[in-house]
Design goal:
single chain; alpha/beta; eight-stranded parallel barrel; two-stranded antiparallel ribbon; 12 helices; 42% helix; globular
Length: 337
């Protein structure tokens, strides 16, 4: 793997209540297979591992700009290079997205979970997936059916842990209650949308995850580039990701706050992307953040953010720019007298 002058390695923490050690930054791969050329993606994975990031997060549907499953295939190519890559990586993927127009080729039926896992293992070229995450809730799938499939995969050595993504707080509690009735470990983690601009997870998702001992991973910690200096990038014509998607969808409503945010970051001499990511990593109950770098420069910026410590005054200033939901904190106190 590559060398060179790298920042200090990312610190490691436990995966929630469990013993496995994970870096606080997770390499997200949603930008691979379309926004990042394959050779550049292979280099990014090497650079991330060299810098101490030991978690690679993907999903079976990623790569849809080429074809669904392409990103898992790309990661499989990277792992197949050897050099300790597989041994040093906590490998996470997701199930539940619609893989085709065929009936039953999506969701969380036992049939699809088992079939999709076999296909992910084949694309990744591995015998076991470390963290197998349900990409979203499937209200049609009974928990007994879901856990039956997951227990089969654990018992057969094809997955180590089960995680969730985009669950509500009550989904987490319901999943855990069902798992405990089966004397099963249940969920290891929840991956949720969380950043300065979108703080709904503070109401119930983060409290539920903490109560049940789940690791909580924030995806889109900069909200698709909205918090990465979007206004300066748009003015200079250098905007890429932040000129589209969720960043552009939310910018009209939040433009006054984003203007204040970028001005505040300039006043303290820090880059908006690093402030936004540092804020997420500072939040109680947050195990780590899933980043989606497209360049090594983005990767180094994320690692600098991991070392940035915001003081109480700076955190209070950010709360004033992007207030929490309701009165702040968990529900029902956030909205009830």
């Amino acid at each position: 793997m590559s060398g060179g002058d790298a920042p200090d390695p990312a610190p490691y923490v436990r995966l929630g209540r469990l013993a496995t050690q994970v870096s606080r930054l997770w390499l997200g791969t949603v930008n691979f297979s379309g926004r990042v050329e394959d050779d550049d993606a292979l280099r990014l994975m090497d650079e991330a591992l060299d810098r101490g990031i030991n978690c690679v997060d993907t999903a079976d549907i990623y790569g849809w700009r080429v074809h669904k499953g392409h990103t898992e295939e790309l990661i499989g190519r990277w792992l197949a290079q050897g050099g300790g890559r597989r041994d040093n990586v906590v490998l996470a993927t997701k199930v539940g997205g619609e893989m085709s127009e065929r009936v039953n080729d999506g969701g969380l039926s036992a049939r699809h979970i088992i079939t999709a896992c076999e296909q992910s293992l084949r694309r990744l070229g591995v015998e076991c997936i470390d963290l197998y995450q349900m990409h979203r809730i499937d209200r049609a799938a009974p928990w007994d059916e879901v856990w039956q499939a997951m227990e089969h995969l654990v018992a057969s050595g094809k997955i180590c842990y089960v995680g969730s993504s985009n669950f509500a707080g009550w989904h987490i509690s319901e999943a855990q209650a069902s798992a405990h009735r089966r004397n099963a470990l249940g969920l290891a983690s929840e991956q949720c949308l969380y950043n300065l601009a979108v703080r709904h997870a503070e109401l119930e998702v983060l409290p539920a995850a903490r109560h049940h001992g789940l690791a909580t991973l924030a995806w889109s910690p900069l909200h698709g580039g909205l918090l990465s200096g979007v206004l300066d990038k748009l003015d200079s014509g250098t905007a890429v990701k932040c000129a589209q998607g969720r960043a552009q969808a939310l910018l009209p409503a939040l433009r006054p706050a984003v203007e204040k945010y970028e001005a505040y970051c300039r006043s303290i001499g820090e880059h908006p992307a690093e402030v936004g990511l540092a804020w997420v990593l500072s939040r109680p109950g947050i195990t780590g953040a899933v980043i989606g770098p497209r360049t090594v420069g983005h990767l180094d910026s994320a690692l600098r953010a991991g070392r940035l410590r915001l003081d109480d005054g700076q955190l209070a200033a950010l709360d004033r720019i992007f207030p929490p939901v309701g009165r702040g904190g968990p529900g029902p106190e956030a909205w009830a007298d």
